[in-house]
Structures are given as structure tokens and as C-alpha cells.
């Protein structure tokens, strides 16, 4: 990449609606979207290497994959998918060292949005998602508890740090889909972004 890419981070606890809202941002603004979790799940499936096995095990247990692995994966993915419009990355950074590694080495985020959601709401969404095709290995009661704990201990401090820097927009993600997304879209417009439709 000759110059730093334009990147927005969409953060929020497990089941807060990061993926759902990113899909709509892609339609309205034309961004290229990557979910760090989806990239890691694909990497875990792809290989039989020790690293692939390690990633799979970390995700199944609800723990955070070592930052070097995730940042390298994101760097490679952005290089392989040039975007004239920009990227939205969801579910990353989840730890302070990841945030620093990405922002120092790849690009400083152009904007950060935090989907604030109660654990009760997130749990209900995750456990009901587990019922259909979209079932994920980590959508069981035990792993969800671990994901919530990691979220409080590791991920929320990243959000707090961004809030202190005055860089983080907060959305109440407990509400109905369309109401939540209307706020998300408005934030992007406030950040100077232009809808393509
Ligand atoms: N839904 C969404 N919005 C709704 C609304 N307003 N009202 C009612 N229902 C709503 O949504 C979850 C479910 O809720 C869906 O069924 C949706 O239809 C419904 P979704 O948009 O999927 O929420 P999202 O926040 O994307 O939830 P997800 O489960 O993907 O969040 P996680 O943060 O847990 O998952 P992620 O894939 O980001 O990470 C998984 C694991 O990967 C982590 O636990 C970790 O092990 C690993 N990981 C790393 O190690 N490092 C990283 O950097 C990233 C991930
Ligand atoms: Mg997701």
C-alpha cells in the first residue's frame, strides 16, 4: 500500500450488532468490510498448521488470538483488497496492544464507533442466532460467558481509551435494528462521509 488506507473501527461486545450494521454501511457508503472474527475463523478453517489450530482453539474458548497474528492477517487482507472508498473493520482492536500495533504500523483510524449493548440483550441475540444456519462454535452458553468476561476485561478498556481521546462515537445498540442503524449512518455522515445512494 503506497499510502495509509482509510479505516473505520466498529467496536462492541459479542452480539452487539457489529456485523449487522457493517453490512448496511457497505450498501450505503460502498466501503469494503472485514470482520476480524470472520477472517480468523476462515484462517482457522483453511489450514492444518499449528497456527490454524491455535486460532481455532482460541475462538472456540472465547479468548483473544495473539495480536501479531490478527494484525498480520488484517495487513495482508487490506493489501489484497484495495479500496478507493475505505474500509470498515469490525471487532478489532480488542486489546490495547492490537490498537497500537495497527495504528502505528498500518493506519490511524479515521473514526471509531462503539455499539453499546447490555449483556442481557447480547446473550439473547447470540443464543437465538445459534439455532439456525448461522450457528457458530462459540455461540454456546459457556463460551458466551467467557466472551463477555474477555470483553469487560480486555475490550472495554480499549473503548474507554478511545473515548478519553475524544475519538469514539457511542450508539445505543439495544434498540430495534432500523433505529440503531439510523444512528450509525448519521454518525458516518457527521464524520464527513458521503452515502453513495
Ligand atoms: N441482531 C443484530 N442487531 C439486532 C437488533 N438491533 N435487534 C435484534 N437483533 C439484532 O448480531 C448478532 C445477532 O443479533 C444476529 O443474529 C443479528 O441478526 C441480531 P451481529 O451483527 O452478528 O453482532 P456482532 O456484534 O457482529 O456479534 P459477533 O458474535 O460477531 O461478535 P463477537 O465480537 O463475539 O465476534 P467476532 O467474530 O468479532 O469475534 C469472535 C472471536 O474471534 C472472539 O471471541 C475472539 O476469540 C476472536 N477474535 C480475536 O481473537 N481477535 C480479534 O481481533 C477479533 C476476534
Ligand atoms: Mg460479527
UniProtKB/TrEMBL annotation:
Protein's UniProt keywords contain NADP: no
PROSITE patterns linked: ADENYLATE_KINASE (PS00113)
GO BP terms in the entry: nucleobase-containing compound metabolic process
Molecular function as annotated in GO: ATP binding; nucleobase-containing compound kinase activity
Keyword line: Kinase, Nucleotide-binding, Transferase
Database matches in Gene3D superfamilies: P-loop containing nucleotide triphosphate hydrolases (3.40.50.300)
Record's keyword annotation contains Amino-acid biosynthesis: no
Entry's family note: Belongs to the adenylate kinase family.
PANTHER family with a match to the protein in the record: NUCLEOTIDE KINASE (PTHR23359)
Protein name as annotated: Adenylate kinase
Amino acid at each position: 500500500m503506497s499510502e495509509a488506507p482509510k479505516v473505520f473501527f466498529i467496536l462492541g461486545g459479542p452480539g452487539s450488532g457489529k456485523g449487522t450494521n457493517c453490512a448496511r454501511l457497505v450498501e450505503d457508503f460502498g466501503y469494503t468490510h472485514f470482520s476480524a472474527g470472520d477472517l480468523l475463523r476462515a484462517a482457522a478453517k483453511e489450514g492444518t498448521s499449528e497456527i490454524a489450530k491455535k486460532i481455532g482453539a482460541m475462538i472456540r474458548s472465547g479468548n483473544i488470538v495473539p495480536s501479531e497474528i490478527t494484525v498480520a492477517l488484517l495487513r495482508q487482507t487490506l493489501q489484497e483488497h484495495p479500496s478507493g472508498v475505505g474500509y470498515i473493520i469490525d471487532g478489532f482492536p480488542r486489546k490495547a496492544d492490537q490498537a497500537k500495533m495497527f495504528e502505528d504500523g498500518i493506519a490511524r483510524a479515521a473514526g471509531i464507533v462503539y455499539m453499546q449493548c447490555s449483556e442481557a440483550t447480547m446473550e439473547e441475540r447470540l443464543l437465538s442466532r445459534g439455532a439456525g444456519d448461522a450457528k457458530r462454535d462459540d455461540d454456546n452458553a459457556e463460551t458466551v460467558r467467557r466472551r463477555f468476561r474477555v470483553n469487560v476485561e480486555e475490550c472495554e478498556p480499549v473503548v474507554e481509551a478511545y473515548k478519553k481521546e475524544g475519538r469514539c462515537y457511542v450508539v445505543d445498540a439495544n434498540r430495534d435494528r432500523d433505529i440503531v442503524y439510523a444512528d450509525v449512518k448519521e454518525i458516518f455522515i457527521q464524520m464527513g462521509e458521503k452515502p453513495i445512494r
